[in-house]
Amino acid sequence: MEKRMKGYLGTYTKRNSEGIYSFELDMHSGTIEKVALAAKLERPTYVTLSEDKSLLLSVMKQDGRGGVSVFGLPDKGDNLEIIAETTHSDISSCHISIARGNDYVVVSNYHEGSVELYKYDKEANSIKFVTSVFHEGSGPNKDRQEGPHVHFADFTPDQRYVVVVDLGVDEILTYEIKNDTFVKAATLQVAPGSGPRHLVFHPNGTIAYVMTELSSEVLTLQFDAKTGSFEKIQQISTIPNDFVDNNQGSAIRISKDGKFVYAANRGHNSIAVFQVSEDNGLLSFVEWISTEGDWPRDFNLDPTDQYVVVANQETDSIVLYQRNQATGKLTLKQGPIEVLEPICVMF
Q1: How many CB atoms lie within 10 A of CB 1?
Q2: Is the pTM of this model over 0.90?
Q3: How many C-beta atoms surround the C-beta of residue 284 within 10 A?
Q4: DSSP secondary structure string, 61-118?
Q5: Residue in 108, 90, 189, 120 with CA at minimum distance from that of residue 153
Protein backbone atom coordinates (compact mmCIF):
# COMPACT_ATOMS: atom_id res chain seq x y z
CA MET A 1 0.00 0.00 0.00
CA GLU A 2 1.18 3.49 -0.79
CA LYS A 3 2.39 5.41 2.24
CA ARG A 4 1.10 8.73 0.92
CA MET A 5 -1.90 9.49 -1.27
CA LYS A 6 -2.13 12.62 -3.43
CA GLY A 7 -5.38 14.55 -3.58
CA TYR A 8 -6.63 17.61 -5.46
CA LEU A 9 -9.17 20.28 -4.55
CA GLY A 10 -11.21 22.38 -6.96
CA THR A 11 -12.19 25.80 -5.59
CA TYR A 12 -14.40 28.79 -6.36
CA THR A 13 -11.87 31.72 -6.52
CA LYS A 14 -14.66 34.16 -5.64
CA ARG A 15 -12.67 35.50 -2.68
CA ASN A 16 -9.06 34.56 -1.92
CA SER A 17 -8.55 31.12 -3.48
CA GLU A 18 -6.15 31.06 -6.44
CA GLY A 19 -7.03 27.82 -8.21
CA ILE A 20 -6.50 24.07 -7.82
CA TYR A 21 -4.84 22.91 -4.60
CA SER A 22 -3.09 19.64 -3.82
CA PHE A 23 -2.64 17.81 -0.54
CA GLU A 24 -1.02 14.62 0.72
CA LEU A 25 -2.75 12.04 2.89
CA ASP A 26 -0.41 10.01 5.09
CA MET A 27 -2.08 6.60 5.04
CA HIS A 28 -0.36 5.33 8.19
CA SER A 29 -0.86 8.27 10.52
CA GLY A 30 -4.17 9.36 8.97
CA THR A 31 -3.18 13.00 8.55
CA ILE A 32 -3.46 15.51 5.74
CA GLU A 33 -0.29 17.44 5.03
CA LYS A 34 1.29 19.78 2.46
CA VAL A 35 -1.78 21.68 1.24
CA ALA A 36 -0.38 23.75 -1.64
CA LEU A 37 -1.43 25.62 -4.77
CA ALA A 38 -1.03 23.21 -7.69
CA ALA A 39 -2.33 25.35 -10.58
CA LYS A 40 -3.35 28.98 -10.72
CA LEU A 41 -6.73 28.98 -12.44
CA GLU A 42 -9.95 30.95 -12.33
CA ARG A 43 -13.10 29.08 -11.24
CA PRO A 44 -11.82 25.48 -11.21
CA THR A 45 -15.03 24.47 -9.47
CA TYR A 46 -14.90 20.83 -10.56
CA VAL A 47 -11.91 18.66 -11.34
CA THR A 48 -11.69 15.04 -12.39
CA LEU A 49 -8.97 12.46 -13.01
CA SER A 50 -8.71 10.12 -15.96
CA GLU A 51 -9.13 6.46 -15.03
CA ASP A 52 -5.46 5.76 -15.75
CA LYS A 53 -4.51 8.70 -13.47
CA SER A 54 -2.44 10.34 -16.20
CA LEU A 55 -4.58 13.47 -16.57
CA LEU A 56 -6.40 15.95 -14.38
CA LEU A 57 -9.14 17.97 -16.08
CA SER A 58 -10.86 21.05 -14.74
CA VAL A 59 -13.64 23.38 -15.74
CA MET A 60 -12.41 26.96 -15.64
CA LYS A 61 -12.98 30.56 -16.64
CA GLN A 62 -10.62 32.55 -18.85
CA ASP A 63 -11.10 36.05 -20.22
CA GLY A 64 -14.75 35.91 -19.19
CA ARG A 65 -15.47 32.63 -20.98
CA GLY A 66 -15.94 29.12 -19.64
CA GLY A 67 -13.81 26.22 -20.80
CA VAL A 68 -11.65 23.21 -19.98
CA SER A 69 -8.04 22.84 -18.84
CA VAL A 70 -6.09 19.58 -19.12
CA PHE A 71 -3.11 18.94 -16.84
CA GLY A 72 -0.51 16.22 -16.57
CA LEU A 73 0.14 14.86 -13.07
CA PRO A 74 3.65 15.60 -11.74
CA ASP A 75 6.04 12.81 -10.79
CA LYS A 76 7.44 15.06 -8.09
CA GLY A 77 6.42 18.36 -6.55
CA ASP A 78 3.04 20.01 -6.36
CA ASN A 79 2.65 21.96 -9.61
CA LEU A 80 0.32 20.58 -12.26
CA GLU A 81 1.64 20.79 -15.83
CA ILE A 82 -0.78 22.42 -18.29
CA ILE A 83 -1.14 20.30 -21.44
CA ALA A 84 -4.11 21.82 -23.24
CA GLU A 85 -6.98 24.23 -22.72
CA THR A 86 -9.87 25.77 -24.61
CA THR A 87 -12.81 28.07 -23.97
CA HIS A 88 -16.26 27.86 -25.49
CA SER A 89 -19.15 28.91 -23.24
CA ASP A 90 -20.21 32.39 -22.22
CA ILE A 91 -20.22 31.26 -18.60
CA SER A 92 -18.20 28.76 -16.55
CA SER A 93 -19.42 25.18 -16.11
CA CYS A 94 -20.06 23.04 -13.02
CA HIS A 95 -19.00 19.44 -13.79
CA ILE A 96 -16.59 17.53 -16.02
CA SER A 97 -15.98 13.85 -16.88
CA ILE A 98 -13.64 12.00 -19.22
CA ALA A 99 -14.20 8.69 -21.00
CA ARG A 100 -12.09 5.67 -20.17
CA GLY A 101 -10.20 5.97 -23.45
CA ASN A 102 -9.21 9.57 -22.64
CA ASP A 103 -10.79 10.77 -25.88
CA TYR A 104 -14.24 12.22 -25.14
CA VAL A 105 -14.86 14.79 -22.41
CA VAL A 106 -18.34 15.87 -21.28
CA VAL A 107 -19.01 19.14 -19.48
CA SER A 108 -22.17 20.20 -17.63
CA ASN A 109 -23.44 23.79 -17.86
CA TYR A 110 -25.78 24.62 -15.00
CA HIS A 111 -26.68 28.13 -16.12
CA GLU A 112 -27.12 27.32 -19.82
CA GLY A 113 -28.93 24.03 -19.20
CA SER A 114 -26.67 22.18 -21.61
CA VAL A 115 -24.10 19.43 -21.84
CA GLU A 116 -21.02 19.88 -24.04
CA LEU A 117 -18.86 17.33 -25.81
CA TYR A 118 -15.12 17.87 -26.27
CA LYS A 119 -12.41 15.74 -27.84
CA TYR A 120 -8.96 15.36 -26.34
CA ASP A 121 -6.10 14.49 -28.68
CA LYS A 122 -3.15 13.02 -26.79
CA GLU A 123 -0.80 13.12 -29.77
CA ALA A 124 -1.50 16.77 -30.56
CA ASN A 125 -1.82 17.80 -26.89
CA SER A 126 -5.07 19.57 -27.73
CA ILE A 127 -8.69 19.67 -26.65
CA LYS A 128 -11.47 21.04 -28.82
CA PHE A 129 -15.20 21.62 -28.52
CA VAL A 130 -17.30 19.28 -30.68
CA THR A 131 -20.99 19.82 -29.98
CA SER A 132 -23.58 20.53 -27.30
CA VAL A 133 -27.20 19.74 -26.56
CA PHE A 134 -29.53 22.19 -24.81
CA HIS A 135 -32.40 21.04 -22.62
CA GLU A 136 -35.84 22.64 -22.42
CA GLY A 137 -38.51 22.90 -19.75
CA SER A 138 -38.85 23.94 -16.12
CA GLY A 139 -39.93 22.66 -12.72
CA PRO A 140 -42.29 23.74 -9.93
CA ASN A 141 -39.59 25.42 -7.80
CA LYS A 142 -39.75 28.96 -9.18
CA ASP A 143 -36.49 30.01 -7.58
CA ARG A 144 -34.36 27.09 -8.76
CA GLN A 145 -36.25 25.49 -11.65
CA GLU A 146 -37.18 28.39 -13.91
CA GLY A 147 -35.35 26.53 -16.68
CA PRO A 148 -33.06 23.54 -17.27
CA HIS A 149 -29.95 23.27 -15.08
CA VAL A 150 -27.59 20.44 -16.03
CA HIS A 151 -25.50 19.58 -12.96
CA PHE A 152 -23.85 16.27 -13.87
CA ALA A 153 -22.85 14.24 -16.93
CA ASP A 154 -20.72 11.11 -16.97
CA PHE A 155 -20.21 7.90 -18.88
CA THR A 156 -21.95 4.67 -17.90
CA PRO A 157 -19.70 1.86 -16.62
CA ASP A 158 -19.74 0.17 -20.03
CA GLN A 159 -18.92 3.56 -21.66
CA ARG A 160 -21.82 3.13 -24.10
CA TYR A 161 -23.91 6.04 -22.81
CA VAL A 162 -23.58 9.45 -21.22
CA VAL A 163 -25.95 9.99 -18.27
CA VAL A 164 -27.01 13.60 -17.74
CA VAL A 165 -28.73 14.83 -14.56
CA ASP A 166 -30.83 17.99 -14.94
CA LEU A 167 -31.83 19.69 -11.68
CA GLY A 168 -34.03 22.28 -13.39
CA VAL A 169 -36.41 19.91 -15.19
CA ASP A 170 -36.26 16.93 -12.79
CA GLU A 171 -34.92 14.58 -15.45
CA ILE A 172 -32.19 12.00 -15.85
CA LEU A 173 -31.37 11.64 -19.53
CA THR A 174 -29.26 9.08 -21.36
CA TYR A 175 -27.42 9.82 -24.59
CA GLU A 176 -25.32 7.85 -27.01
CA ILE A 177 -22.46 9.55 -28.83
CA LYS A 178 -22.79 8.86 -32.55
CA ASN A 179 -20.72 10.62 -35.18
CA ASP A 180 -19.62 13.15 -32.56
CA THR A 181 -23.21 14.10 -31.67
CA PHE A 182 -25.50 13.38 -28.72
CA VAL A 183 -28.37 11.02 -29.59
CA LYS A 184 -31.01 10.67 -26.87
CA ALA A 185 -31.64 7.09 -25.77
CA ALA A 186 -33.93 7.47 -22.74
CA THR A 187 -35.40 9.91 -20.22
CA LEU A 188 -36.48 9.31 -16.62
CA GLN A 189 -38.80 11.92 -15.09
CA VAL A 190 -38.37 12.03 -11.32
CA ALA A 191 -40.66 13.68 -8.75
CA PRO A 192 -41.45 17.33 -9.61
CA GLY A 193 -39.40 19.72 -7.50
CA SER A 194 -36.90 17.10 -6.30
CA GLY A 195 -34.01 18.68 -8.22
CA PRO A 196 -31.68 15.73 -9.02
CA ARG A 197 -28.04 16.78 -8.82
CA HIS A 198 -25.40 14.00 -8.97
CA LEU A 199 -25.37 10.27 -9.76
CA VAL A 200 -23.11 7.36 -8.91
CA PHE A 201 -23.21 3.78 -10.23
CA HIS A 202 -22.96 0.66 -8.12
CA PRO A 203 -19.94 -1.48 -9.13
CA ASN A 204 -22.36 -4.06 -10.59
CA GLY A 205 -23.36 -1.54 -13.28
CA THR A 206 -27.09 -2.27 -12.94
CA ILE A 207 -27.96 0.04 -10.02
CA ALA A 208 -27.39 3.79 -9.72
CA TYR A 209 -27.97 6.29 -6.92
CA VAL A 210 -28.98 9.91 -7.42
CA MET A 211 -28.69 12.71 -4.87
CA THR A 212 -31.49 15.26 -5.10
CA GLU A 213 -30.59 18.81 -4.14
CA LEU A 214 -34.04 20.25 -3.52
CA SER A 215 -35.81 17.35 -1.77
CA SER A 216 -32.71 15.97 0.04
CA GLU A 217 -33.18 12.35 -0.98
CA VAL A 218 -31.24 9.50 -2.52
CA LEU A 219 -33.06 7.82 -5.40
CA THR A 220 -32.19 4.19 -6.11
CA LEU A 221 -32.46 3.42 -9.83
CA GLN A 222 -32.44 0.19 -11.82
CA PHE A 223 -30.37 0.61 -15.01
CA ASP A 224 -30.97 -1.29 -18.27
CA ALA A 225 -27.63 -1.32 -20.08
CA LYS A 226 -29.29 -2.50 -23.31
CA THR A 227 -31.60 0.50 -23.68
CA GLY A 228 -29.88 3.05 -21.44
CA SER A 229 -33.08 3.53 -19.45
CA PHE A 230 -33.56 3.94 -15.69
CA GLU A 231 -36.41 2.94 -13.38
CA LYS A 232 -36.76 4.31 -9.84
CA ILE A 233 -37.12 1.59 -7.21
CA GLN A 234 -36.57 3.55 -3.97
CA GLN A 235 -36.26 7.00 -2.45
CA ILE A 236 -34.88 7.68 1.01
CA SER A 237 -34.36 10.94 2.89
CA THR A 238 -30.85 12.17 3.68
CA ILE A 239 -31.93 14.41 6.60
CA PRO A 240 -33.86 13.81 9.83
CA ASN A 241 -37.65 14.15 9.65
CA ASP A 242 -37.61 16.92 12.25
CA PHE A 243 -34.99 19.06 10.45
CA VAL A 244 -36.94 22.02 9.05
CA ASP A 245 -34.19 24.50 8.17
CA ASN A 246 -32.82 25.00 4.65
CA ASN A 247 -30.96 21.98 3.31
CA GLN A 248 -29.54 21.33 -0.14
CA GLY A 249 -28.18 17.93 -1.11
CA SER A 250 -24.77 17.97 -2.78
CA ALA A 251 -22.39 15.10 -3.49
CA ILE A 252 -22.94 11.34 -3.48
CA ARG A 253 -20.29 8.60 -3.39
CA ILE A 254 -20.17 4.82 -3.09
CA SER A 255 -17.53 2.52 -1.62
CA LYS A 256 -15.61 0.37 -4.08
CA ASP A 257 -17.15 -2.81 -2.70
CA GLY A 258 -20.62 -1.36 -3.32
CA LYS A 259 -21.69 -1.91 0.29
CA PHE A 260 -22.15 1.71 1.42
CA VAL A 261 -23.46 4.94 -0.10
CA TYR A 262 -22.59 8.38 1.29
CA ALA A 263 -24.49 11.62 0.67
CA ALA A 264 -23.70 15.19 1.76
CA ASN A 265 -26.17 17.69 3.21
CA ARG A 266 -25.58 21.44 2.99
CA GLY A 267 -27.54 23.11 5.78
CA HIS A 268 -27.82 20.06 8.00
CA ASN A 269 -24.03 20.01 7.43
CA SER A 270 -23.69 16.26 7.58
CA ILE A 271 -22.76 13.14 5.70
CA ALA A 272 -25.56 10.58 5.61
CA VAL A 273 -24.39 6.97 5.53
CA PHE A 274 -26.47 4.18 3.98
CA GLN A 275 -25.92 0.43 3.75
CA VAL A 276 -26.61 -1.26 0.42
CA SER A 277 -28.61 -4.48 0.34
CA GLU A 278 -26.67 -7.24 -1.37
CA ASP A 279 -29.97 -8.67 -2.63
CA ASN A 280 -31.50 -5.74 -4.47
CA GLY A 281 -29.32 -2.67 -4.01
CA LEU A 282 -31.84 -0.86 -1.80
CA LEU A 283 -30.54 1.46 0.92
CA SER A 284 -31.00 1.42 4.69
CA PHE A 285 -29.92 4.30 6.94
CA VAL A 286 -26.79 3.88 9.10
CA GLU A 287 -25.86 7.28 10.57
CA TRP A 288 -25.36 11.01 10.15
CA ILE A 289 -22.03 12.57 11.02
CA SER A 290 -21.29 16.29 11.27
CA THR A 291 -18.98 17.77 8.64
CA GLU A 292 -17.46 20.09 11.27
CA GLY A 293 -18.09 23.07 8.98
CA ASP A 294 -20.64 24.84 6.84
CA TRP A 295 -21.96 23.86 3.40
CA PRO A 296 -20.21 20.57 2.50
CA ARG A 297 -20.14 20.98 -1.29
CA ASP A 298 -18.23 17.78 -2.00
CA PHE A 299 -16.38 14.87 -0.41
CA ASN A 300 -14.62 11.74 -1.57
CA LEU A 301 -13.27 8.41 -0.41
CA ASP A 302 -9.56 7.81 -0.90
CA PRO A 303 -8.65 5.03 -3.39
CA THR A 304 -8.28 2.49 -0.58
CA ASP A 305 -11.64 3.43 0.99
CA GLN A 306 -9.99 3.90 4.41
CA TYR A 307 -10.52 7.65 4.64
CA VAL A 308 -13.03 10.31 3.59
CA VAL A 309 -12.19 13.97 2.91
CA VAL A 310 -15.01 16.55 3.09
CA ALA A 311 -14.86 20.08 1.58
CA ASN A 312 -16.78 22.73 3.55
CA GLN A 313 -17.28 25.60 1.12
CA GLU A 314 -18.49 28.37 3.42
CA THR A 315 -16.06 27.77 6.29
CA ASP A 316 -12.97 27.41 4.04
CA SER A 317 -12.01 24.01 5.35
CA ILE A 318 -11.49 20.34 4.64
CA VAL A 319 -12.01 17.58 7.20
CA LEU A 320 -10.60 14.05 7.34
CA TYR A 321 -12.54 11.01 8.58
CA GLN A 322 -11.46 7.42 9.11
CA ARG A 323 -13.85 4.90 7.65
CA ASN A 324 -14.85 1.57 9.18
CA GLN A 325 -15.01 -0.68 6.13
CA ALA A 326 -17.21 -3.24 7.89
CA THR A 327 -19.87 -0.86 9.25
CA GLY A 328 -19.43 2.07 6.86
CA LYS A 329 -19.34 4.48 9.79
CA LEU A 330 -17.05 7.52 9.87
CA THR A 331 -14.89 8.82 12.72
CA LEU A 332 -13.41 12.31 12.79
CA LYS A 333 -9.66 12.04 12.34
CA GLN A 334 -8.39 15.55 11.57
CA GLY A 335 -9.63 19.03 10.94
CA PRO A 336 -11.00 21.46 10.13
CA ILE A 337 -7.94 22.27 7.97
CA GLU A 338 -7.91 25.64 6.23
CA VAL A 339 -8.44 25.56 2.46
CA LEU A 340 -10.01 28.54 0.73
CA GLU A 341 -13.40 27.98 -0.95
CA PRO A 342 -13.10 24.20 -1.47
CA ILE A 343 -15.65 22.84 -3.93
CA CYS A 344 -14.43 19.44 -5.20
CA VAL A 345 -12.27 16.59 -3.85
CA MET A 346 -10.42 14.11 -6.09
CA PHE A 347 -7.67 11.55 -5.40
Answers
A1: 8
A2: yes
A3: 9
A4: EETTEEEEEEEEPPSSSSPPEEEEEEEEESS--SEEEE-TTS-EEEEEETTTTEEEEE
A5: 108
Mean pLDDT over the full length of the chain = 97
pLDDT over 90 at 237, yes or no: yes
Indicate the pairing of strand 81-89 with strand 95-98: unpaired
190 vs 275: CA distance, rounded Å: 23
100 neighbors 125 (Cβ within 8 angstroms): no
**294 exposure class (CB count in 10 Å sphere: 0-12, 13-18, 19+):** middle
Quick check: 257 and 204 in contact, CB under 8 A?
A: no
The whole-angstrom separation of Cα 75 and Cα 222 is 41
Please name the residues in contact with 51: beta carbons below 8 A apart, sequence gap of 6 or more. 98, 100
Within a 10 A sphere around the Cβ of 205, how many other Cβ atoms? 12
| Residues paired with residue 104 on neighbouring β-strands, in sequence order | 119
- Spatial separation of the C-alpha atoms in residues 318 and 257, rounded to whole Å: 25
Distances (CA, A) of 298 to 45, 199, 262, 291: 11, 13, 11, 11
Q: How many CB atoms lie within 10 A of CB 143?
A: 6
